[in-house]
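// run 5 | inverse folding | seed 20
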């Protein structure tokens, strides 16, 4: 019995050691508006749509490897607020009048873009907007920037299958409500939907909050802080709506 107990104990120790050593996770931190820090399991750091306004700030100690800018509005393009010497991908060129064509692999991350509009009038009111897709660790993330339109079939095909969706829901300058829900149904993200660009005590000029968007939905997780860790070895079985706090 003692030998059997010793063998079982050894097996358990080896199992948990193996699990710990092979633990893989992706970290998401939200700093307000459409600004996220995404950290891959290989510690590559991506900042999306950098922001610096009122209480929305990127901590100085974070040194990014990659920065993406969906469009050139002041609450999405504060590249100078990011520490380090990141590679910067701007989705728009020539003063925001044209789309850049991006399909690059940096370290363990493939990044490509899909053109879209900031409004329902094909950009005539608020201009152009770039959707960024990130591929790494066997997952695919879509960051929709300040999208203001329902997706076309061409855009859906270019975006492809998505595991994690970052979608604006605050209205006024972007989609909200039924339009946001429509895009979720169009893209069918497998794991997580992160609402972004919504009303808070900082962004009180936006009419709709994250709670307005997730009201009545199943599998809603409200995080006290601004950080969510996705365990790649224990993925959600059903789609989760994760609401982060910028603080």
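// decoded
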């Amino acid at each position: 019995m003692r030998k059997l107990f010793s063998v079982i104990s050894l097996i358990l120790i080896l199992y948990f050691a193996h699990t710990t050593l092979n633990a893989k996770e992706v970290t998401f931190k939200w700093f307000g508006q459409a600004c996220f820090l995404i950290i891959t399991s290989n510690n590559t750091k991506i900042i999306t749509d950098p922001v610096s306004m009122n209480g929305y700030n990127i901590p100085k100690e974070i040194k990014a490897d990659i920065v993406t800018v969906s469009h050139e509005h002041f609450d999405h393009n504060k590249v100078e607020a990011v520490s380090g010497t990141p590679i910067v991908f701007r989705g728009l060129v020539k003063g925001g009048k044209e789309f850049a064509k991006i399909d690059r692999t940096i370290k363990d991350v493939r990044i490509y873009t899909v053109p879209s509009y900031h409004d329902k009038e094909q950009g005539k009111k608020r201009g152009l907007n770039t959707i960024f897709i990130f591929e790494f660790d066997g997952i695919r993330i879509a960051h929709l920037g300040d999208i203001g339109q329902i997706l076309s079939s061409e855009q859906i095909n270019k975006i492809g299958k998505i595991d994690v969706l970052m979608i604006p829901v605050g209205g006024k300058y972007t989609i909200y409500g039924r339009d946001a829900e429509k895009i979720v149904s169009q893209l069918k993200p497998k794991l997580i939907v992160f609402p972004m660009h919504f009303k808070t005590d900082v962004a009180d000029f936006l009419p709709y909050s994250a709670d307005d968007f997730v009201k009545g939905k199943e599998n809603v997780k409200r995080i006290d802080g601004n950080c969510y860790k996705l365990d790649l070895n224990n993925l959600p079985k059903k789609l989760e709506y994760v609401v982060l706090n910028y603080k």
